[in-house]
Amino acid sequence: MLAHNLAKKARVAGFKRLLANMSHELRTPLDVIIGYSESSHIADETNERQHIHKSAEHLKRLINDLLDLSRAEVNELDLTLEMQGNHRRAC
Length: 91
Prior knowledge:
By secondary structure, the protein is mainly alpha-helical. The protein is built from two helices and two strands; from the N terminus they run ααββ. It has helices at residues 2-38, 46-73; strands at 81-84, 87-90.
């Protein structure tokens, strides 16, 4: 039983390291792309800039959702309650 628990803790620790690395490796380039799309260097090409920005933001939301699901798998996802109008909802 002890060996099983130690193995499980090692897998969870490895998974946490993987999530941290994935988060950094995926978000950093996306933040650069988003920043570039917001800069004035391509301000003249409004449609192209907006498309790049919109696509990068969408991809970042997908990555964040995937990382949240992965954290939930190892019981590392923090949930908070927020008031929404007259109702409470989990976020």
